[in-house]
Amino acid sequence: MAILDVVSTKAQRAFFGTVLFQAIVVIVMVAITFGKVEDNFDLTDTQYKTIPCYLALFILAELFEIFMAYDALRLRNVIQLVGILLFHAALLVMAALQVHETRSALVTNPGKNWTQDYLHGDGSGTVWSRVFPFLVVSPVVIGVTWPVMMWFVRELYYEFGWAIFHVVGANPAAKTMYQYYQVIICLLKFDFFAFVGVTMQLLIVVLATSTAEFGLTIAAIPIVLVLLIGCGLAVQREIKWLMTISLILMLAAESYFYKLVRFFEPSSRAQYATVRSTLTTFTIIAFLLLFSTFAIGLRCFADFDKGLLKSKLHEPTFQRRYSSSTHGTAGAKKEEGYGAGAPLGQRVSIE
Q1: Are 277 and 177 in the same domain?
Q2: Cα three-residue angle 339-344-346, rounded to 5 degrees
């Protein structure tokens, strides 16, 4: 499906354009920051690994947000649009945390200017003073675009209002069940990002390739991906045995967050020093998302075999409205496009 078909209205173009604009600006700022730090520091040093991690996370986050925005517009999914707003707010928090963590990594001799300690000082002319403006741009741009996106989501809410009606009809119970289905599909997508974000930070910054924990973290990646995909298929096609397995594995996966304790244990505290704030935030969010997915999954499981399967398999995707029209055999005008009705039959006079 062509992107121009998806973003066909003014509100859709404005929303997607805002997401795309801020993504480009943020990625450019992060890349400049990375380049300036790389010119002066050895990024293979554990202390400075937070910088490539910062770059990788934001590129992943911005590409993910672009995909989610396109996907939400394609599916006419208001719930996913709201999820994007929450995700954008989380990006703002993450960008602000990265300013602090980058400073912690670079500045080990505060109060010194470039003549006293160019690399590790925080005064005028130092590496930190050159990097700081580019770090600040990211949270500013994300923060400014957030209310703009909220405004356009409000417009899209009214624009997409009939989408669910066309799928499930006017039945309030069916509408509620379908909304829960949309919520869990949306949560599964965010679960994927949160898990990848936590794993990426652990692999880049913390874990040595020779440790058993590194191997376990690598092994968890395909397992979690299979879990998320399996749960999505199960809830869409109402496969009970697969949904049962998915929910059990989801509950078991909560134990993965024992790592949260390790971030603050005296024996391993220093290992996580440069990424503790971001990693802790990511881990808590991932835990809450997975628990929410489990809870909503139980609700969706209870809605199996209640007549929603056909609606799930025929979700509302965009179809271009055609301005041209054709005439039916009975002389009635037949409109083509989304939501068009059937042609009128020939009237029979009783006079």
Answers
A1: yes
A2: 175
